[in-house]
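seq as requested:
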Amino acid sequence: MSKTLIVIGGGAAGFFCAVNAASMNADLRVIILEKQQKLLSKVKVSGGGRCNVTHACFEIAELVKFYPRGQQFLKKAFHWFNTNHTISWFEERGVILKTEADGRMFPRTDDSQTIIDCLLREATKHKVEVITGCDVETIQQEEGIWKINTNSKTFIADFICVAAGGYNTLAKFDWLQQLGHTIETPVPSLFTFNMPQNSIKELMGVSVPLAAIKLVGSKLQSSGPLLITHWGLSGPAVLKLSAWGARELADKQYKFSILVNWLHDTNEQKLREEWGNLRNELATQKVGNKNPFGLPNRLWNYFLSICGIKEELRWAELPAVNQNKLITTLAAQLFEVNGKTTFKEEFVTCGGIKLNEIDPNTMQSKKANGLYFAGEVMDIDGVTGGFNFQNAWTSGWIAAKAISGQ
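struct tokens:
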């Protein structure tokens, strides 16, 4: 007699679980329940509409370092399905991935619709039923059979895979807590820093390829490209810091101070030591015409302005007080952050189902047989760069393998 799997959530993890379970076991009836009308919405917007499928990191020991939460769990899970498997899986279905200079991997078409179409084709091919506008309210198990109560009807299933994504409040996990699961309180993970009163916002669109950021009063720091926006600072350096500091920054209610080193690894002391030679070399040149640090001209001129240095001034004429201010601004500029903004539409949370209640080799709940999890509903999150999708593919595939073999 055929069995039924219901996947709750029509995102990357949910679809990957559904299509793989159906392809591995032709006798398994697979249904996806999605509360929204749209399917795979995060896949659509990821990577600026190109879909950052995964990251070109092929050693498990290195790959897990990109996950602020879930490293030990993923160390086991990635042995079953990792970046290599993801690339092969999509290639076998006609989707070739390419690697960019920073390691991010995208479909060669540079279009997220390519990934969506691939998953939808697999769903059609393996007769996966997809029901949208179906919001799950409660699930309960009676004599080994699952009842899924939704806003429209009640479904019966032998297996459930919860791939509902990250919730932004603890209350939204109630239906899972009722099954005995413990929830790590969710807080935002990937976000940009708001600096409503800072004049640097006037330079929105200006970016630096490599800068360093440190949270004042903490060991938290990160480096990478830095982007100035109309609300403050963004880019990979900020997003990495926001991921690693998700809980600490939430505790601070998103009011904190950061130091930015626009020169990345040249600290203030080293810059002061080198400054004399630099000044002698450029002595007769106008400060505004000669930017020796490779910074964008608009940013350099902004620094001169806030340090009270006229662009016509020659390097040899720099007053000591203004020079000292410029050195500090370049290597340790202080910013007061007040608030955050979700990074584009890529809402990511840390928090979710506690990982010691899930088997990383099957994604099955340790609290209830036949209940599985995949994706961000678990307390796993990665930094920006394709790592959250890799967790979705990995956990979805492992759950599918375990369910299809039952």
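The first strand starts at residue 4 and ends at 8.
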